[in-house]
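Demo today. Your pick:
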Amino acid sequence: MSVQRSSSPNSVWDSIPGIAFGGDYNPEQWPVDVRLEDIELMKEAGVNLLSVGIFSWALLEPKEGEYDFAWLDEVLDNLAAAGIKVALATPTAAPPAWLVRKHPEILPVTADGTVLERGSRRHYSPSSAVYRKYAAGITRKLAERYKDHPALALWHVDNELGCHASEFYGEEDAEAFRRWLERHYGSIEGLNEAWGTAFWSQHYSSFEEIIPPRAAPTTLNPTQRLDFQRFSSWALMDYYRTLLAVIREVTPHVPATTNLMVSSGTRSMDYFDWSENLDVVANDHYLVTADPEREIELAFSADLTRGVAGNKPWILMEHSTSAVNWQPRNQPKRPGEMLRNSLAHVARGADAVMFFQWRQSAAGAEKFHSAMVPHGGRETRVWREVVGLGEALGKLSAVKGSIVESRVAIVFDYEAWWASELDSHPSEDVKYLNVLREFHRSLFLRGVTVDFVHPTADLSSYGLVLVCTLYCVTDEAAANIAGAAERGATVLISYFSGIVDERDHIRLGGYPGAFRELLGIRTEEFRPLFEGEETVLSDGTRGRIWSEHVHLDGAEALASFTTYPLEGVPAITRRSAGTGSAWYLATLPDREGIERLVDKLLTEAGVAACAEAAAGVELSRRVQADGRSFLFAINHSREDAAVKADGEDLLGGGRFGGVVPAGAVAVIAED
């Protein structure tokens, strides 16, 4: 449940004109003269929103009960005078040394019993009652002091919850897990049935006998592990709500959020569950510079963030101006890449572009992480590009508040991700994102925008619905997906979907369990492929990772396996369902096979690209409630690219000329 509000908070967008622009600001690292220079540089860059105070607890409360707010008063007053709004952070992501020394029991414990010490950050357990008390105390002090400050526009609660450590195994965590299970199941008999404890003599006679899935001799109970993942996401969220309750009490008019880490690599928390507790969704995203298609991963993460946000405008709370400090080889961004990255997030629903951080640190673990103001100051390419980005965002005020248009949905479920990648499965090569990312990539390259949606979401507006590796699925979600096909959508379901229920119990009677009737097929046996092994389909597709023995039961085969021992066995099937259709994919196709399949799916669904454009151009469209539409055309290539569109070029001025220069971006207010 979400925290109850005494009154509805304002929208963060009400206090910020146009697209928000800024980043994390850590003035406590700098003397007063640098802070004053910062104000002038922020004006030059067009900054209008900053996150402040994220890691400042040890300076705000240097000793227990002794506070120093003078420096923060000065900073907030100066920012307010400059017309810059603040997302004021609770400084709770790094407890001060005095607190850890007094209460070492707040420290996190790993599955093998290791205590994670202070000296970095995030060194606390969210289930620690002591830590919650102290964190709520400093939060209240800040809220009471700054509740009426003119700079305050948003609360930034903690920071990157779940980063570095997302599961906690100490005694207090164990007790919290037991109480969560008791609320969830109601009785120990219910838990025993759900966990299948008749297997391996794991039967429990009371909740007090249960512990977290700590290090053990061999494979742990899979439902216990799945429930512990659910609990761990809830525990972090419940800690967030503890601080949110203080904020609601003292400043009910001020909206609140925390910076999520939605990306193709972050799976530790169920962000769809989290979203109802956020007044606005905020996300941190960083490129993996070694990825040659990193702009596609960025689009994936931005689309998923928009899905978590329910297709409402969201905040890009952190990304980098250039290199980061934590990858094996930290290359800088290429010329113009920061602009392309930033506007790609805007193209996919962000109404705020922010960075870590404002000024590059001179000391500490992140001193080589890029910033808006680099070590070299104003005489640098990065600074010139920061100023250029501020100018570009200033021209996009008309886009603010619009939503992204899409007729394709990819069903996304964190619980299915967790469950599908537990051990003792048919193949360790089956990863939740395998098929999903291949489809997203193909659609990205075609200029077709995708919405990521929860399995229970309303699917009525989509012509094409892709269901990839939805291994764990509830009856409700399965019926919802079947209903989309019955109402006219083209629905594709991939291998290893519908196999178990929400308890991780096999749906008996033949695979794919929950979707057998919809698909008109029955699989009697899986045949996962060895590393490097391929299977060939009758249409020329080369399959990887997976194959299975499929029988038709009302469906037709569109392609079959041709390799021993599955010669002639259906590999891609289709069945008419209501006014729509249900397709099944029993392998992971190569890129050419994916392209052929996507062609057929889009044609049947009647879905087309946003616009016609040359290869290398990323396309997305945002639409205002009054019908005004804005086509984003981002040229990732090193050659000028043609785009077929008519309207005003918001960035270049005048009419759009039909060409986006190499490495540039066009935002077209369409006629």
